[in-house]
UniProtKB/TrEMBL annotation:
It catalyses: N-acetyl-L-glutamate 5-semialdehyde + phosphate + NADP(+) = N-acetyl-L-glutamyl 5-phosphate + NADPH + H(+). The keyword Chaperone does not apply. It comes from Roseicyclus mahoneyensis. The keyword Membrane does not apply. Residues 4-105 form the Semialdehyde dehydrogenase NAD-binding domain. Catalyzes the NADPH-dependent reduction of N-acetyl-5-glutamyl phosphate to yield N-acetyl-L-glutamate 5-semialdehyde. The active site is at C116. This is N-acetyl-gamma-glutamyl-phosphate reductase. It holds the Pfam family Semialdhyde_dh. Gene3D superfamilies: Dihydrodipicolinate Reductase, domain 2, NAD(P)-binding Rossmann-like Domain. Keywords: Amino-acid biosynthesis, Arginine biosynthesis, Cytoplasm, NADP, Oxidoreductase. The lineage of its organism: Bacteria, Pseudomonadati, Pseudomonadota, Alphaproteobacteria, Rhodobacterales.
């Protein structure tokens, strides 16, 4: 038996990488629309009707525009966009979030993939909040650097045409679209300050959370992360030395793995939580395929 999968937005950055992961699989049949119909509502609704699972790889506005039409169709839906990440009618598709996450995803009809920065930030923050190392209203700052593919086709064109060089800091006004999902899913009650930047490299990401903890803080935080993710295949807790002196944001490109580590000064408690992931792997397309596998009742690493 093969599952019929429709990727809406399959020629976009996230869609292409999902397709690359699925097209060789014997257990998946891809439903594809010809170029001239790929934005036709009628053609897309036909594809949704035929699919067992649809994966939305569209800008938020296009997702909002189609989502209500999908609710009554039999196909299950995975949404890669920001549109439904805090929506209680959608399952949050971070399988490693807590003990019940996989079962909730498996039973879901609609699953929302976490964002790339938020995958790193939530993965680092939830265990330290749950372990009581910081309070839910602790003042938190998140720093992050992403490859330019994080901005989709238009940002890739900006860099590859030479219109933008060297990278930039942005979203300093504290309204980044990932903040609401980070607050909700990490169990925070106070919005962190989030300072993302884009570098002159295509793909890959580092998310860092500096924290003032009590003396011994770095070891306590590492222990909390290791306990939370014990036995997980795609979220791995490493010693700081494993990542090298200069942490390369591209080190996990092409994989669905996210590595977490902690550094800092045990005497003062100055602690830095660090996550490395591929923004298009565990940060988007890999996570979507992992969720697809869970929805289909397959080994969740199939094709990853
Ligand atoms: N890039 C990343 O690292 C990540 C992306 N995401 C999310 O995934 C989603 C897709 O992003 P990304 O792939 O980067 O974006 P891209 O701009 O690269 O791709 C979006 C695709 O959607 C197509 N599209 C736009 N409107 C419609 C429509 N009405 N009907 C059908 N197709 C449409 C676009 O068509 P056209 O080619 O004609 O422009 C394009 O091919 C976004 O919501 C994004 O936030 C999530 C995590 C990480
Ligand atoms: C580098 C860059 O621009 N990154 C995007 C986030 C990646 C993305 O596409 O966002 P979602 O995960 O929310 O869908 C941004 O900051 O808006």
């Amino acid at each position: 038996m093969t599952a019929k999968v429709f990727i809406d937005g399959e020629v976009g950055t996230t869609g292409l990488q999902i397709r690359a992961r699925l097209e060789a699989r014997a257990d998946v049949t891809l439903i594809s629309l010809p170029e001239e119909h790929r934005k036709s509502r009628l053609a897309r609704l036909g594809a949704f009707n035929e699919a067992d699972v649809a994966i939305l790889c569209l800008p938020d506005a296009a997702v909002h525009d189609i989502a209500s039409d999908l609710r009554d169709l039999p196909c299950k839906v995975i949404d890669a966009s920001t549109a439904h990440r805090t929506d209680p009618d959608w399952e949050f598709g971070f399988a490693e979030l807590d003990q019940g996450a996989r079962a909730r995803i498996a039973a879901g009809k609609q699953v929302s993939n976490p964002g790339c920065y938020s995958t790193g930030a939530i993965a680092l923050l939830k265990p330290v909040v749950d372990a009581g190392l910081i309070a839910a209203d602790h003042p938190i700052t998140i720093n992050a650097v992403s490859g330019y593919s994080g901005g989709g086709k238009s940002m890739i064109a900006d860099f590859e045409s030479g219109r933008v060089t060297g990278g930039f800091v942005y979203a300093t006004g504290q309204h980044h679209k990932h903040l609401p999902e980070i607050v909700l899913r990490a169990g925070l009650t106070r919005k962190p300050i989030f300072v993302p930047q884009v570098g002159q490299f295509e793909q890959g990401m580092i998310v860092q959370v500096p924290l003032h903890l009590a003396p011994g803080g770095p070891a306590a935080a590492l222990e909390a992360l290791a306990a939370h993710y014990a036995g997980q295949r795609f979220v791995q807790v490493r010693s700081r030395a494993d990542l090298g002196d200069r942490i390369d944001p591209q080190r996990l490109n092409g994989t669905n793995t996210m590595e977490l580590t902690v550094d800092g000064d045990p005497e003062t408690g100055a602690t830095v939580l660090i996550a490395v992931l591929d923004n298009l792997g565990k940060g988007a397309s890999g996570a979507a395929v992992q969720n697809l596998n869970i929805l289909l009742g397959l080994d969740e690493g199939t094709g990853l």
